[in-house]
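Here is one such tokenized protein:
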Amino acid sequence: EVQLVESGGGMVQPGGSLRLSCAASGFTFSSYGMNWVRQAPGKGPEWVSGINPGGGTTLYADSVKGRFTISRDNAKNTLTLQMIGLEPEDTALYYCARGQGGGAMDYWGKGTLVTVSS
């Protein structure tokens, strides 16, 4: 059974940092691209970042470029999102999702909540 479990969310002040993690199990992690997607209150899902199976290629939404860094550890089946310079607009439920090519994502975790507020 594919499982994706996010952790690391919390409440931070504007300008603060957080590191999100996603523990993957039930599939060959190193064979799949992975993504972070977020959903702010009252809004639709927004793709944030993606990484290819080997970790050598990363992509970011313009809204987070330069502030967020995606990475993966294939030996530990873990996906990470390092976030710095957080803004109130980054407040959202953050999900990790397995990629299926062409932008499709077939499995999602339950999410971890990030709140940026003073």
In short: The chain has a mean pLDDT of 97. The radius of gyration is 13 Å. The longest strand covers residues 18-25.
